[in-house]
Amino acid sequence: MSKRIELQDVDIYYGKFHAVRQVNMTIQPRAVTAFIGSSGCGKSTVLRSLNRMHEVIEGAYVTGQVLLDGVDLYARDVDPVRVRRQVGMVFQRPNPFPTMSIRDNVLAGVRLNNARVSRKESDELVEKSLRGANLWNEVKDRLDRPGSGLSGGQQQRLCIARAIAVSPDVILMDEPCSALDPISTLAIEELIHELKEEYTVVIVTHNMQQAARVSDQTAFFNLKAQGQPGELIEFGDTEKIFHNPEEKATEDYITGRFG
């Protein structure tokens, strides 16, 4: 079941470096939310804070609250590993495990979580996950071949299947199409539309047209000055952000005047 995410007074730091300040937003379930903004404005940092992935960098921390259906993901008794199971992530470049088969790639996260599944259950899970990523028909006859033998677009959909397999509530995507050709990009965008029927989806993209095509809501981040923390400038329905933004900085970015 997809879930609502709320950020309340969120500030993000890397050691003494203040990366992002005072983010407040509510990300709706079963919808696609796009984070846009120029390089270095903090959009990927905010994305990674949603499943505590930024914490893999030493000294990184968050103040404020990140709530998943009211549960603070940063509460002392919350296990980051469990958070990352609930909130899956797909990275900029496809990263299937190169020595693993397609089948084992799909099951990697399930096994990492020490879930015990029978051969029949794993077969069903592999098929369900690959179907969910619109990849089953292309790979069903070569499940035992290495995932690294797939095309770039297929590899990215395999990574999405791997994320789906652990039954997350939320799927995060950090520029999932930046390394792909236009045809593969279209396939991923169509998949994102389908994924929101079951999941809360948050995507970072530099591509304005992509944000306009795939998202229901858009958050625009910006640096007011070099050396200052990134800030959430405007957040709302994608239609409004792109056609009738309230902030001049938003309009300037979307119309290509800067960024």
Automatic annotation (TrEMBL):
Gene Ontology BP terms: phosphate ion transmembrane transport
Domain ABC transporter: 5-254
Cellular component per GO, a single term: membrane
Keyword hit for Oxidoreductase: no
Molecular-function GO term, any one: ATP binding
Pfam families in UniProt: ABC_tran
Membrane-spanning intervals of the chain: none
Domain of life: Bacteria
PROSITE patterns reported for this sequence: ABC_TRANSPORTER_1, ABC_TRANSPORTER_2
Keyword Nucleotide-binding: yes
Keywords: ATP-binding, Nucleotide-binding, Translocase, Transport
InterPro entries: AAA+_ATPase, ABC_transporter-like_ATP-bd, ABC_transporter-like_CS, P-loop_NTPase, PstB-like
Coiled coil residues, start to end: none
PANTHER family for this protein: ABC TRANSPORTER I FAMILY MEMBER 17 (PTHR43423)
Protein name: Phosphate ABC transporter ATP-binding protein
Biological source species: Tessaracoccus rhinocerotis
